[in-house]
Amino acid sequence: MKRVVADPQIYGVLAEFDNPQALLDAARAAHREGYRLMDGYSPFPVHGLSDAIGFHKTRLPLVVLIGGIIGAVGGFFMQWYATVVSYPINIGGRPLNSWPAYIPITFETTVLCAGLAAVLGMLALNGLPQPYHPLFNMPRFELASRAAFFLCIKSTDPKFEVSATRQFLLTLKPTSLGIVPHARVAPTVPVDPRKPGTAKDPSAH
User: 84, 108, 125: which is the final residue of a domain?
Assistant: First the structure.
């Protein structure tokens, strides 16, 4: 489907739901409809949500593996260089490269570097720290950490088109619906599908 972007400043369309099952059903429906670039937000983990939005892979295990390999090689090399090259000592006729003695420290540096890679990789892959996010423009989004559930379809999705995406989300019966701007602007009043005419429709702009 040809992508039509009505406003390059739009981040996406955000739909709010009042329970986790409604969010899960909406995510599955959006995935069946062909949307792939979307995110779900909830106050607690919702089983099956990551699969419903199509999030199946992460590069974090690879990052941890690389960190562990660097730690193992670096720890072993550090000890080898110290005992063979930098300060060789003949201890009881043992070979300078007495590698069994290197194992404990090599293990420790492997765990250390893998742990650091896990933490730093998680932050980097999640784009953290993130002082500002376009969803902060939505006044009700603060409820995502307390009592509300949100599904956001991003404008970078190949299938995204403002009016069509909005109409599709309305068929899922959200408690509110809003268009998310990229820039930090005055909050947009969300649409309440249950009370037509009581809120300003963001798509009218």
Answer: 125
C-alpha distances out from residue 107 to 102, 114, 120, Å: 9, 11, 20
**CA 4 to CA 127: how far, in whole Å?**
27
Does residue 91 fall inside a structural domain? yes
Residue 21 included in any domain:
yes
How many Cβ atoms are within 10 Å of 22's Cβ, its own excluded? 18
99-156, pLDDT tens digit by residue?
A: 999 999 999 999 999 999 999 999 999 999 989 999 999 999 999 999 999 999 999 9
Residue 183 pLDDT class (50, 70, 90 cuts):
confident
Distance CA 185, CA 66 (A): 41
Q: Name the token pair of 167.
A: 């109409």
153 lies in the same domain as 177? yes
pTM of the model: 0.73
Beta carbons within 8 Å of 147's beta carbon, 6+ residues apart: 43
Residue 144 near residue 43 (C-beta atoms within 8 A)? yes
Same domain membership, residue 139 and residue 191: yes
- State how many domains the chain has: 2
The CA dihedral of 119, 124, 125, 127, to the nearest 10 degrees, is 130
| Residue 169, domain extent | 10-56+133-204
Helix residue ranges, H only, 17-161:
20-33, 49-52, 60-80, 103-125
- Gyration radius of the chain's alpha carbons: 26
